[in-house]
Design goal:
The chain is an alpha/beta fold. The longest helix is centred in the C-terminal third of the chain and has 14 residues, at about 250-265. A hairpin with a 2-residue loop joins strand 9 and strand 10 (about 175-185). It has helices at about 15-25, 55-70, 75-80, 85-95, 110-115, 140-150, 205-220, 250-265, 270-275, and strands at about 1-5, 30, 50, 75, 105, 120-125, 135-140, 155-160, 165-175, 175-185, 195, 220-230, 235-240, 285. Helix 1 (about 15-25) packs across helix 8 (about 250-265). The protein is globular and about 60 Å long. The strands form three sheets. Strands 9, 10, 11, 12, 13 and 14 form a six-stranded mixed beta sheet that branches. The chain is about 30% helix and about 25% strand.
Length: about 300
Amino acid sequence: MRIGLITADPAHPVLAAATRLLTGDGHRVDHLDPDGEAPGPDRGALADVYLLKARTPRALALAARLESYGAPVLNSSAATGRCQDRVVMAELARTAGLPFAATRPVDTVGELAAAGEPAGPLVVKSRYSRRGDLVARADTAAELRALATVWPEEPVVVQEFTANSGWDHKLWVVDGRLFAGLRRSELAPDGRGPTRPLPPGELPTGWAELALRTGGVFGLDVYGVDVLLGPDGPVVVDVNAFPGIRGQAGAPEALAELALRTARTPRTDRTALTTRTGCAAPTAGETKGWRRKGA
């Protein structure tokens, strides 16, 4: 099988580990840099499946072109795009009944600051999710003005700050297999720290099902869900297509197995594989072992 990686960083730990598994089993793994000069493969040189790790506009355009040729892409360009615009993300999640934080768009942080003192603490985020984007807490108009000097033209969204423990629950899903961790929130006074492993069985009741349902709503196979424990229960604050999933035992194996199963599935049968629904039971993340070719 030929597997294509659409990424600017093929050495990313989870991709590198999955690549070692695949190549060790005799499969070919090609790297496509979506922001490089090469235009990408034509119809006659397609891989059997592509893993879309990059989320830049050029990466999404490349993935859409490959899909138009009939190649499967995980996650699809459409599903990935739904996670890039945080306004679209929030509208889709809340319409589906997910406990997503109320989110409203604002043209710039300066416009928000000009409105005067906020009624309470706010979380200000870049409207378009990307590496190094804006995520900050602002309690006062002065803090908003300070943000505006650094991000003067940045389109943003605003969420009311959810009182919480200061820890983000990081839930990751690969093909229905759940992984979890705890990380100090970047909004906490001491800033973000390392991620602590969290056995999925220690999650509050219903959180595993919430993570899996989120993937069904967005049409994702490989994704992350950031959840806070608020006063009234879980609050989803972000959904990420193809996140890093660093240091999670079993994640590379799950990713490699997903790639191979998708590549081997006839095109007419792929619809059943592209989206898991909230009706399915999530499985614990760690796999029993890499399923070798022919297994």
